[in-house]
Every structure is written in structure tokens, then in C-alpha cells.
UniProtKB/TrEMBL annotation:
Signal peptide: none annotated. The lineage of its organism: Bacteria, Pseudomonadati, Pseudomonadota, Alphaproteobacteria, Acetobacterales. PANTHER family: FLAVODOXIN-RELATED PROTEIN WRBA-RELATED, FLAVOPROTEIN-LIKE PROTEIN YCP4-RELATED. Coiled coil: none annotated. This is Flavodoxin/nitric oxide synthase. One of its GO terms (cellular component) is membrane. InterPro entries: Flavodoxin/NO_synth, Flavodoxin_CS, Flavoprotein-like_sf, FMN_Rdtase-like_dom. It comes from the Bacteria. Residues 4-148 form the Flavodoxin-like domain.
Length: 185
């Protein structure tokens, strides 16, 4: 099984695209939360065996999607048994507005990781925030807690700004590098 799992929900494909880029950077396996907010038993086994878990959700109405929340609540038995204690965690969200209350979603992801006794990986990248900033630059949304991505409301899945996707790959690489440091020799 893969050392790193990116578990995500995506209603319309944009967050899936972000998840694919995080997974590319982390050499991770993707696990999709279904439209009913569920995982297969095989997927749960992958999460339980992973060294690192990366949570991904679109921001819907200023928080995670209900499907992601259903998944989060379904981890309560694992929480009780401390099944994910001391795993590495990261998280990302994607939404239409540059801000769009994405911070609340990231905070929910970080809190979920913390409830499980996890070690949270911040974004670890400087913001691109000068007048000269271009859409191809990294971290133009200035995230720090985790990865923020904007998919403008009229953007197709193929129109997510490249800089945001590059930032996703870099975040995945950081999670993999930190995970490797925590691996038993
Ligand atoms: C029910 C719903 C609520 C949304 N709420 C927000 C929001 O609070 N902030 C925001 O910036 N975008 C919001 N959006 C836009 C989505 O975050 C955006 O379209 C995102 O790319 C969807 O990702 P997905 O294709 O993975 O589902 C909302 C969209 C939907 C369908």
C-alpha cells in the first residue's frame, strides 16, 4: 500500500485536479470520497496503513463539503482507538473566490488531523504578493496553514491557474520529504 494517501471529495472535478497534483508531488495514491460521502473498506484500509494522509475538500458555503464532513465523522471510531495517532497530515481546499472563506475549511482539516493526534504539515512556501505577481507564480493566494487553490466560478477543470497547481505539486513534495524524515530507519 502507498505510504501517502490523498483523500478528497470533489463535486465537479476541480478539487480532484488539485488532488492529482498534490499526489503527483507526494508520489501518493488518491482515494476519492464518493458522492454519498463514503469510502470502500479497501480505501479505509489504505488510510489506516498510510504514514501520511492529506485531506482535500472544496469550500462549500464556507466549510468542507457535506460529503467530506460525513467522511470526517466516520473516522470517529478510528479517533477513539487512536488509529491515526502520530501520522503526518496535510490539507488543501479549492474554491471559486480568491478568499471565499477557504481558511475556515483549512482550519477544519487541520482540526480533524489534530483530533487524531496527527502532525500537521504547513504549506512552507513564501507568498507571491507583489505588483509583478503573475498567475503562473507560486502561492499567489498567500496560504500558510495548508494549500489554497482558486478555481474561478466560470473556469473549467483545465483552467485552474498553473501557479496554483505548481504550488500543489510543491506541497505534495514537502509532505513526502517530511514523511520520509519520520520514517523508521
Ligand atoms: C454548494 C456550493 C457552495 C459553494 N460555496 C463557496 C464558498 O463558500 N466560497 C467560494 O469561494 N466558493 C464556493 N463555491 C464554489 C466552489 O468552491 C468551486 O466551484 C469549486 O471549484 C468546486 O470544486 P469541485 O469542482 O471540486 O466541487 C461553492 C460551490 C457550491 C456548489
Amino acid at each position: 500500500m502507498a505510504d501517502i494517501i490523498v483523500v478528497y471529495h470533489s463535486g465537479f472535478g476541480h478539487t480532484k485536479k488539485v488532488a492529482e497534483h498534490v499526489a503527483q508531488g507526494a508520489a501518493a495514491e488518491l482515494v476519492a470520497i464518493s458522492e454519498n460521502g463514503e469510502l470502500t473498506e479497501a480505501d479505509w484500509a489504505k488510510l489506516n496503513a498510510a504514514k501520511a494522509i492529506v485531506f482535500g475538500s472544496p469550500t462549500y458555503m464556507g466549510n468542507v463539503s457535506w460529503q467530506f464532513k460525513k467522511f470526517a465523522d466516520a473516522t470517529s471510531r478510528i479517533w477513539y482507538n487512536r488509529g491515526w495517532q502520530d501520522k503526518i497530515f496535510g490539507g488543501f481546499t479549492n474554491s471559486a473566490s480568491p478568499v471565499g472563506d477557504k481558511g475556515l475549511t483549512l482550519s477544519a482539516l487541520q482540526t480533524l488531523a489534530s483530533q487524531h493526534g496527527g502532525l500537521w504539515v504547513s504549506l512552507g512556501q513564501l507568498p507571491s504578493n507583489t505588483k509583478a505577481t503573475q498567475p503562473t507564480d507560486p502561492n499567489t493566494l498567500g496560504g500558510s496553514v495548508g494549500l489554497l487553490v482558486q478555481s474561478p466560478a466560470d473556469a473549467s477543470v483545465d483552467e485552474i491557474p498553473q501557479g496554483h497547481l505548481d504550488t500543489a505539486v510543491a506541497y505534495g513534495k514537502r509532505i513526502a520529504a517530511i514523511s520520509a524524515r519520520f520514517s523508521a530507519a
